Known about the structure:
Layout: H1 3-14, H2 16-31, H3 33-64, H4 71-85
Helix pairs in contact: 1-3, 1-4, 2-3, 3-4
Amino acid sequence: MTKYQKYFTDMLDKHTQIFKQFKEVHDKYAQDSEKYKTEFNQIGSQVMDIVREYENRLCGHSERGMYGKFSSNLAEKFRAEIRKHYPKIDFVGVK
């Protein structure tokens, strides 16, 4: 398991409840975006805060070191892993 996958599974394990709620709302939002937009954005903003926190943990040390140029690739791989499970996560906060 790669480092970004480990951080992803750790994030899901430590915040199971909110990701479970987000998954339910995410699936409803995928079916009817107008009806569930408000609920999706409310829970989604909390999820995005958690995602940013884990992304910072993952990439924070590598940005300062000699591997700084690889940090953006690592962050993108982490985000891609999240999109595999939650394809509509990029629509959180979009008006």
